[in-house]
Amino acid sequence: QVQLVESGGGLVQAGGSLRLSCTASARSFSNYDMGWFRQAPGKERAFVAAISGRGGSTNYGDSVKGRFTISRDNAKNTVYLQMNSLKPEDTADYYCAARRIGRTGGYDYWGQGTQVTVSS
User: Fold this and answer.
1) What are the strands of the beta sheet with 68-73, ordered from one edge?
2) Pairwise CA distance, residues 100 & 43, whole Å
3) Interval 22-44: pLDDT, tens
């Protein structure tokens, strides 16, 4: 069982930045691919970014490319989401998720989420 705890959300003005963190309880954290997702009020959960277990591969949702950066520190069991040039449409609850390397499909473990609000 892997427990994930997000932090770093808050209220920011449009154009500002935030960095989200997600710390995992997993042993061998590098054995897990990590992802960030978000869910805005009244909308379905959407993919934001993902990073491979050793950090060598990343990918992003189209709406955040060039503005958000995912990274990880395996020594700290933590994955980050640096969010720059924030827009009001980035307002959502942000969730991190973990999936064992080699598995396909959905993620197995989810955090409780952290709220991000971007004011115009």
Assistant:
1) 4-7, 18-24, 78-83, 68-73
2) 27
3) 999 988 999 999 999 999 999 99
In 3-state terms, what secondary structure has residue 4?
strand
Q: What b/e readout covers 13-52, taking b as 16+ CB neighbours within 10 angstroms? A: eeeeebebbbbbebeebeebbbbbbbeeeeeeeebbbbbe
At 46-81, the pLDDT tens digits run: 999 999 998 889 999 999 999 999 999 999 999 999
Per-residue confidence (pLDDT) for residue 95, from 0 to 100: 98
SS3 for 36-76 is EEEECCCCCCEEEEEECCCCCCEEECCCCCCCEEEEEEHHH
